[in-house]
Amino acid sequence: MSSHAPHPVLLDAARLAALLERIAARIGPARVVTDAAELAPWLVEGRGLFQGATPAMVEPATTDEVSFIVAACAEAGVPVVPQGGNTGLVGGQVPFGGLLLSLRRMSRIRDLDPIDLTVVAEAGCTLHQVQQAAAETGCLFPLSIASEGSCRIGGNLSTNAGGTAVLRYGNMRELTFGLEVVLPDGRIWNGLSRLRKDNTGYALKDLFIGAEGTLGIITAAVLRLYPAPRAHATTLTGLASPEAALKLFQRLRNVAGDALTGFEILPRFGMETVLTHIPGTTRALAGDHGWYALAELTSTRRDDDLSALALEVFGEAFEAGEIEDAVIAASEAQAEALWKLREALSDAQKFEGGSIKHDVSVPVSRVPHFIAEAARACEAHMPGVRVCAFGHMGDGNIHFNLSQPVGMDKAAYLACWEGFNRIVHDIVAGLGGSISAEHGIGLLKREELPLYKDPVALELMAAIKAAIDPKGLANPGKVLPGG
Amino acid sequence: MSSHAPHPVLLDAARLAALLERIAARIGPARVVTDAAELAPWLVEGRGLFQGATPAMVEPATTDEVSFIVAACAEAGVPVVPQGGNTGLVGGQVPFGGLLLSLRRMSRIRDLDPIDLTVVAEAGCTLHQVQQAAAETGCLFPLSIASEGSCRIGGNLSTNAGGTAVLRYGNMRELTFGLEVVLPDGRIWNGLSRLRKDNTGYALKDLFIGAEGTLGIITAAVLRLYPAPRAHATTLTGLASPEAALKLFQRLRNVAGDALTGFEILPRFGMETVLTHIPGTTRALAGDHGWYALAELTSTRRDDDLSALALEVFGEAFEAGEIEDAVIAASEAQAEALWKLREALSDAQKFEGGSIKHDVSVPVSRVPHFIAEAARACEAHMPGVRVCAFGHMGDGNIHFNLSQPVGMDKAAYLACWEGFNRIVHDIVAGLGGSISAEHGIGLLKREELPLYKDPVALELMAAIKAAIDPKGLANPGKVLPGG
């Protein structure tokens, strides 16, 4: 993978020193980090796919400081790479010679309004911090992803984060009313609107969300809250196939409507992997099943009997031969135990050796077809490879992960990543799908984009990038092919 | 208002004739309309604020024909103005010398998938046509606006249309998964994605939605459907003030959550105007009230007792002294009668003489403050003016309409529009609001934009416009100030 990394930007040492001095004079010398040991953890991303390099990490505390730094870098012709919690999965947060700009000190919740159902959060707030602030006022901030304890709002916005509640509440984009952005030349766009309706020009907010820092640096956002649900039903169903899971999904959606907030699937191999490797997990259904579906129902009405609703649907599905067994959590602890079976899967897979991962989406109706075809093709490509296709079926978003054949050398296996990419992504493309459903493009998928994205879309992206970042200093080398 | 109209584009007669001939050869001479009588209805918008002019109206039937026409116009340097149902309220669809491109023949529903909950509709489909197609398969396309019988999907997309169900389902942008667009040079961007999650680059779809044709012509879209609701409760409440309405809104939202799909308010003057002028309307509550709130609850669960839910909330609100009276529709006919009281208001106002209108939004929590302050200021500015502030309180979107003083000359009254704009829009801006909540900018508010929009946002818009439409031929003179 490291062959994908762009060449480091070469900077003139004297000019660089002058730039860092200028920045230190503004934000304090302690906030310009050049010590190699201090930098090290911020230069490599979670999976270790990319090793970054930077002359310094700067840690501004205010929007004005970010603006000053970016303007100074623009004058000096120095690229800037923004970083939040460094939890991104595609390398978008890794610098290659440019200045690393950490948003972590900008972690203030500026405002929370339970009538407007809005929270104004700075980019460096952790997702958990925002969830907590909402919960304390009887509200819900619905974004929920595995890294929520350490990922930051700026990164959630820049990658348009998804997760397990998108089915009901949408991605980060749908959860955002307004933004504050520092543009690549240092100008500040104050778009911190709290409005639910505003048709006064182009959708600038939507453009910066998901741009992975290539159009500027998001410093704060107005996020959308919901009234906190007061009733829940968490259910696990055993069934024969993704086709059966799709049928159950339709049944639940048609009756429960918005009350259906999550619908996840995992295969038997995934369930067994979790039960084998993750302490404290226990089998929730008596028998073995080819597939499992985890469905979550919620309601703002305290006395809403969602268990009865689920039971009724499960009864009909059982009669129709579509499901084999089901359990409805009788307590919050049981609900958490069911979710753990799903959420521990990524960690559990690490015990099974190398894992080649694909974060893809297809139209919901094509999920069973996709899983069957991609599994067949991958097993033919490498006999013994263990397919673990799981995830957000309700959104058509499958994490199509491939565990190495038992006993194979891990490095030799991971060297086959490109071949599997081609197989899986070609099938995805044939079904009108996406090669990155929720993780983004970053560096990891940048060179794949031209293979699958409409060429006119790529031309439009390049034109917009050139218009907003004409010097190419905003997180260069990310997202845009050949950029 | 007509002083706002840009100067007609002057075209060289011979070059124009050659261009029209070229287009006629491709789409058929009958589809190049130059007859003045045939053109007349398409050159003036509903309120008669602008009188347009065009050398010809062309009527392509396919995306390829649109592409051909736009490319030919780009070569000849001729502007193109797209038009759907000609129901826009800000003049965006009126040509001033450019070619008028009607999308009305592109009215095919290409596909409808009740599993994916998607419909692929061409730009010329009426909104009603899409609603009907959805209903026939047990689905709901939730966009609902007064002009739904004649407005077209392309216009709904280009103005990011809103309406009475935004509270629950969002604007047109939130109801769109993908687009097909003909760019200003004739290239076709095929972005007809059906995906609920796709993080592969910039949010191009969102950029074209709401751009009012200034970045290209939307020819088709993948729209989002919902399972059709099976239970409804339509309610009308009499209360003392917008403050009381806001309290009722919070009570309903906190308990009903997503079941609350609409929350509209109207003042006593509005209610009396409807009852006086609109045949077939009847008083729904016995007494008189200062304000009225219409709340709609829906659910996918057939046996969901929403009336009981509403009754419970109304009981608490009554106990707290927040509401004076309430009625819950006992039949579909009664529900329609309640909605008519709200929906007939725009028509009813015409009987009260000239009406100066503002389509504004503020944060939901500021609606009562806004209405009080703006009413006071307008009444001080012109004693006798009759304030009719009504609309989508749940979205913070108020139609702040001013009926002329009784007996005043209509033309003299309408000449005061600019003065009222400044008063109302200054108050809106002071509350962090928008001067166009759902109608767009078009020509009507183009020169006001610089007074209220963040200057950096305007610079970004101009840069994007120049990048995508460097020749400035896509609906010139609209949206962008001085454009």
TrEMBL record, chains A, B:
**Per its record, how is this protein called by name?**
FAD linked oxidase domain protein
Q: Which residues form the signal peptide?
A: none
**Keywords carried by this UniProt record:** FAD, Flavoprotein
Annotated source species:
Xanthobacter autotrophicus (strain ATCC BAA-1158 / Py2)
Q: Which domain of life is it from?
A: Bacteria
Question: What is the required cofactor set for this protein?
Answer: FAD
Pfam families in the cross-refs: FAD-oxidase_C, FAD_binding_4
Q: Does the keyword Transmembrane apply?
A: no
